[in-house]
């Protein structure tokens, strides 16, 4: 006695093989031929200084001769002039601001 089986039974679809001519792109890098992977980050220019001119040196305060002169001549008040007349000079390029 043969088993009638399920009348509406459809065989399961075959496992998805996709298009036989279709090859999925490899997941690894380099799928786009025109795309170059970015090079590892290299320090091109290490802007360590705060100089607006060369960006490499450091601006340091220097008192001016006039400031020292004012500090000596106008002693108590001259100190204000001394600190007010400081100039920022770059240690790399000598830029003064
Ligand atoms: Zn500089």
UniProtKB/TrEMBL annotation:
The chain crosses the membrane at residues 63-85. GO terms for cellular component: lysosomal membrane; perinuclear region of cytoplasm. InterPro entries: BRI3 (IPR019317). It comes from the Eukaryota. Pfam families: BRI3 (PF10164). Keywords: Cytoplasm, Lysosome, Membrane, Transmembrane, Transmembrane helix. The keyword Secreted does not apply. Belongs to the BRI3 family. Interacts with BRI3BP. Interacts with MGAT1 and IFITM3. This is Membrane protein BRI3. It comes from Adineta steineri.
